[in-house]
Design brief:
Layout (H helix, E strand, L loop, with lengths): L31 H5 L7 H11 L1 H8 L1 H4 L9 E2 L1 H11 L5 E9 L5 E9 L8 H16 L3 E7 L10 E6 L2 E6 L2 E3 H7 L8 H14 L4 H15 L6 H14 L4 H18 L7 H26 L4 H8 L3 H10 L6 H15 L1
Parallel strand pairs: 3-4, 4-7
Antiparallel strand pairs: 1-2, 2-3, 5-6
Helix pairs in contact: 2-10, 5-6, 8-9, 8-10, 9-10, 9-11, 12-14
Length: 352
């Protein structure tokens, strides 16, 4: 495992870090033109947020074992969403990244804030290190809390390895070095397919999803290999369902391949006598819920604008239940058929 900053498992204490002002350096936000080429056809952000909140300890122990070893896990971590939102609002936030702020109790008895950042873009970001340092400094100056910043790089660029922010002028210097877990390194060279950790399976799903973006048949094969392997790793029913839920969330398939996948999965479960993940009844229930939701939303829209174009109706029927719920909430704001189309375009773009 190589890194321009040494081992990503090593935490090097540094002096006090203030709010680092980038000055005339490039804007911290990535060029939106660069992101346009990034094919992200799955909800990586949502899946990562869910995984980190529900499995924080397991993920931290696998990705940052040195940090995890300092924590008293007998005391439940406390999430600080409100505090983090104040910093994100000032620094800017967009899709393709997951930021979480958590307070933990150390084995020394002290409380410690941890800022955990997961970068799930498929393109590198200009001045990424500056933004990490700025968040860290912002949290200190606003809340007077020293914060440990941890970074998970879930992209495919093997050459991109940001791990510190340095600013020098004459005899003045500020430096912040942060631990990094580069998932592609671990998945390709260190974590085997027989690694049972949920943290590893989530990482494998992330990398496989990025590698197969825009390639439905390749996505199908990669997803099947991951899920097929789950049955051989000794999980109980609840564990298997939870890991599958996250993989399924990250590795979406077109409707035709999704139906084929469900059929293959049901056949596999029957052959192994392990009906752990899915069943015809559960699939029908989920699909029925989405279809029912689509019917309700279409009725709401028709009551406002009359007959709806067939193409628009089809787009609504293909939406997942979460999207339908968001659309239902937006209906009162629509003033024309064009407003609906604009909303659908925006929603689909943000989901990619």
């Amino acid at each position: 495992m190589t890194s321009t900053c040494g081992s990503p498992w090593t935490i090097r204490p540094v002096g006090p870090i203030g709010l680092i002002e980038p000055g005339k350096r490039k804007a911290m936000m990535a060029d939106p033109k660069q992101e346009k080429g990034a094919e992200q056809d799955s909800d990586y952000d949502g899946a990562w947020k869910d995984a980190l909140r529900l499995h924080f300890r397991g993920i931290l122990e696998k990705y940052f074992p040195a940090v995890a070893a300092t924590i008293d896990w007998g005391v439940d971590p406390q999430w600080h969403d409100k505090e983090l939102s104040q910093v994100l609002a000032q620094a800017g936030h967009r899709a393709g990244r997951v930021d979480l702020l958590v307070r933990v109790r150390l084995l020394t008895g002290e409380d410690q804030w941890i800022f955990l950042h997961v970068e799930v873009q498929s393109t590198r970001e200009t001045d990424f290190e500056v933004r990490v340092a700025r968040y860290n400094g912002g949290l200190f100056w606003i809340f007077k809390q020293r914060v440990v910043s941890l970074v998970v790089l879930a992209d495919l660029d093997e050459r991109w390895r940001p791990c510190e922010d340095v600013f020098r002028l004459a005899d003045f210097e500020t430096r912040m070095r942060f631990p990094v877990c580069k998932l592609i390194d671990q998945v390709d060279h260190h974590w085997g397919e027989d690694e049972p950790s949920l943290a590893v399976q989530v990482a494998r799903a992330q990398i496989a999803a990025l590698r197969t973006a825009g390639n439905p048949s390749g996505r199908y094969r990669a997803k099947w290999q991951l899920v097929r392997n789950l049955f051989e790793l000794g999980y109980n029913a609840d564990e298997l369902r939870e890991i599958f839920r996250l993989i399924d969330w990250m590795m979406r398939l077109p409707e035709d391949l999704s139906l084929k996948f469900e059929q293959e999965l049901t056949a596999l479960e029957e052959s192994l006598n392990m009906p752990y993940i899915t069943s015809v009844e559960r699939i029908a229930e989920a699909r029925g819920k989405a279809e029912g939701g689509a019917a309700v939303v279409l009725k709401m829209l028709a009551s406002l604008f009359g007959s709806l174009p067939a193409g628009l109706q089809q787009r609504v029927r293909q939406m997942p239940i979460e999207g339908l719920e968001a659309l239902a909430g937006a209906v009162p704001r629509f003033r024309s058929m064009e407003d609906i189309q604009v909303w659908l375009d925006s929603h689909e773009a943000s989901s990619q």
